[in-house]
Q: What sequence folds into this?
């Protein structure tokens, strides 16, 4: 995966690039909006990471212009402005995800990877399959090795999100945002409880666990 | 003596020049004032108007009368000149005698080269004849320019009142001169009186205009002065000054009062914002200092004490989670301070029942995981003006606390409405907070009991309260669900219904 990082703080940019490279991707760094825009227009990337506020041309403005010209590469906004209004602004400008500073490198990498995968054209399928696990989005039936698993509506959405991003780490905050649409840090282990409840349903009667906890970061669903 | 004077002049001249400069500067400062400009403008406008009026009146009265009199006099003169040219000066004399005797309105004087009156009905030619050019020898009488004049005379009647007339003089050959005039009539005196009246009236109006302009402008300028004095003080750093408002509340306020009022309101707001950003800064500094100090101490200790990489790694991991807590404290404090400074969220009418149901569903696993009973009782169709993200944060915060501090028993999460308010109750059967400590508990950073976990930021309750207040509601701590070993804690939120 090729990632463009546009961040004016040189240290931070370096740290981000390293985190992304450590996860096995290629990272390209630049420090101002105009250069970032030029690279985003001329080179091919899987994900663009833009700081919201950049010297020269503002990150929001760059992304808005890219979107106007039909460049649909997924964009992750980074911002020190963490309020909901700022988030909504970022998404309106054409961002696909919004991460407020400070963040952990694991959070950054997890979001970048999820965004990078989003370009895969399989989001329209009606049946999601992952190894023994199968979920039908129409009949809302979940089976593992043919055995029916009863899940609550919210658990269904949680599982769907995990399956769509299978093999990738998803953080608690990502789950909170994407599954519950809550955009704050609840400082609770509520998410853990939900996940472990789901895990008990899909992994309990099987030898081979699929839903893994990544310590300090989040979860990963694997075949 | 002369030398002394020169010396004196030289001595005082710089001061004189300086003084003149001062006067000039003073004049300029006066000329630049609105007062002067407005007064001057008024005066100019009125003068122009008065002049126009005067001119118009003059033309339609005196002008017309004079024109007619002039014409009649010239006609007479033309007839007489013809006689003079054809029959000589004696015939002219006879004709003048006849005409002078028969007319009261036409006036004639025929003078000899010596300046004596030969005939006529007034006693002098009303012009300085020495300045009238005499014709040269052989000039044709008709080509000699006539001179016209306005004058007054006393007619030879019994009334003895001054009359105005207009006449023309013709300096004829051989030194004779003929003056013919026509009385302007009684209308002229009247017209002249009118013109005079208008003229003096205009002067009065002009004076009045200057005074009125001065007063009006000075009133306005004084108000502007008050405003600019206030702004000057504000610029100097005193945000608590306000411009005086004259008549605002009694409904007699003018634009200046409105402006003053707006400016004062702006200053109120600015002052509040400045104060609040000061408070925000102070409280952030205050609230973050202790965790940062703790963090620093931990790092320092482990730098000195750690025996191996694993221990160091553990310290760093702890430091990171401590930092995360600092950040979330920071966010909480920032949000709280903003709320306290009146920078609330964006309220819109939302289905609160739906929102609370989702929160209940969100927390249900955590509650049951802890083997607590979760009683959820949320009335449907509750609508209120809500900032969703903030309100969810407040309620989850409270529920989170309830789960955290309740070891046994149950948690009740209910909501209902009366005719104008919605009440949300989050009650637990935990240790509770004794009534006398409840007020204290709503203050920032108070963790009442050592038994309560040291986790969390300690601003949960006060943040929730600030959020509820931003929704025009109230939050109070009440008794919770009774259980052995504790009174439990209930948090009661009341916010107004949105229809």
A:
């Amino acid at each position: 995966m090729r990632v463009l990082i546009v961040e004016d703080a040189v240290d931070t940019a370096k740290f981000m690039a390293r985190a992304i490279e450590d996860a096995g991707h290629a990272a390209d760094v630049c420090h101002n909006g105009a250069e970032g825009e030029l690279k985003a227009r001329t080179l091919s990337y899987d994900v663009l990471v833009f700081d919201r506020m950049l010297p020269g041309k503002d990150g929001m403005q760059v992304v808005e212009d890219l979107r106007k010209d039909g460049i649909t590469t997924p964009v992750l906004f980074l911002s020190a402005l963490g309020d909901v209004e700022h988030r909504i602004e970022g998404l309106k400008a054409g961002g696909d995800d919004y991460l407020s500073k400070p963040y952990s490198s694991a959070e950054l990498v997890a979001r970048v990877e999820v965004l990078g995968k989003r370009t895969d054209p399989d989001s329209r399928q009606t049946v999601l399959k992952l190894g023994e696990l199968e979920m039908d989005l129409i009949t809302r039936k979940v089976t593992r090795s043919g055995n029916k698993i009863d899940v609550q509506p919210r658990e269904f959405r949680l599982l769907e999100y995990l399956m769509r991003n299978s093999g990738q780490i998803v953080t608690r905050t990502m789950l909170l945002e994407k599954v519950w649409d809550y955009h704050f840090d609840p400082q609770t282990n509520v998410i853990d409880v939900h996940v472990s409840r789901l895990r008990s349903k899909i992994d309990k009667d099987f030898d081979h666990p699929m839903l893994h906890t990544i310590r300090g970061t989040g979860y990963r669903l694997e075949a | 003596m002369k030398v002394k004077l020169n010396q004196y002049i030289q001595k005082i001249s710089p001061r004189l020049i300086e003084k003149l400069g001062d006067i000039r500067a003073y004049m300029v400062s006066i000329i630049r004032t609105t007062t002067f400009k407005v007064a001057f403008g008024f005066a100019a406008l009125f003068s122009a108007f008065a002049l126009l009026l005067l001119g118009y009146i003059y033309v339609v009265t005196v002008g017309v009368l004079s024109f007619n009199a002039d014409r009649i006099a010239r006609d007479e003169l033309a007839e007489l000149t013809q006689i003079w040219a054809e029959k000589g000066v004696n015939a002219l004399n006879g004709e003048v005698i006849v005409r002078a005797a028969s007319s009261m309105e036409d006036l004639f004087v025929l003078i000899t080269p010596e300046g004596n009156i030969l005939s006529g009905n007034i006693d002098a030619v009303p012009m300085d004849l020495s300045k009238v050019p005499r014709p040269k020898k052989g000039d044709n009488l008709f080509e000699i320019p006539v001179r016209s004049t306005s004058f007054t005379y006393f007619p030879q009647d019994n009334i003895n009142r001054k009359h105005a007339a207009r006449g023309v003089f013709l300096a004829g050959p051989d030194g004779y001169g003929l003056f013919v005039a026509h009385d302007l009539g009684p209308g002229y005196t009247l017209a002249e009186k009118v013109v005079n009246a208008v003229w003096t009236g205009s002067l009065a109006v002009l004076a009045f205009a200057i005074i009125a302009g001065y007063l009006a402008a000075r009133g306005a300028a004084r108000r502007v002065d008050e405003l600019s004095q206030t702004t000057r003080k504000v610029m100097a750093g005193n945000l608590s000054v306000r411009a005086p408002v004259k008549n605002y509340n009694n409904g007699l306020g003018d634009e200046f009062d409105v402006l003053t009022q707006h400016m004062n309101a702006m200053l109120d707001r600015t002052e509040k914002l400045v104060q609040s950003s000061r408070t925000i800064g102070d409280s952030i500094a205050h609230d973050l200092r202790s965790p940062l100090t703790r963090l620093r101490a931990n790092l320092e200790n482990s730098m000195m004490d750690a025996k191996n990489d694993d221990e160091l790694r553990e310290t760093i991991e702890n430091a990171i989670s401590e930092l995360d807590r600092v950040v979330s404290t920071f966010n909480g404090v920032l949000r709280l301070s903003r709320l306290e400074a009146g920078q609330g969220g964006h309220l819109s009418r939302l289905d609160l029942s739906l929102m609370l149901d989702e929160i209940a569903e969100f927390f249900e696993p955590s509650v049951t995981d802890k083997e607590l009973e979760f009683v959820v009782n949320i009335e449907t169709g509750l609508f209120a003006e809500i900032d969703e993200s903030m309100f969810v944060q407040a309620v989850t915060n409270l529920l989170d606390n309830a789960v955290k501090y309740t070891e046994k028993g149950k948690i009740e999460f209910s909501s209902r409405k009366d005719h104008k308010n919605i009440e949300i109750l989050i009650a637990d059967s935990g240790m509770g907070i004794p009534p006398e400590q409840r007020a204290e508990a709503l203050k920032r950073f108070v963790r009442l009991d050592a038994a309560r976990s040291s986790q969390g930021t300690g601003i949960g309750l006060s943040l929730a309260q600030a959020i509820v207040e931003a929704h025009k509601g109230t939050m109070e701590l009440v008794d919770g669900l009774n259980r052995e070993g504790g009174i439990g804690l209930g948090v009661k939120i009341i916010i107004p219904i949105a229809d």
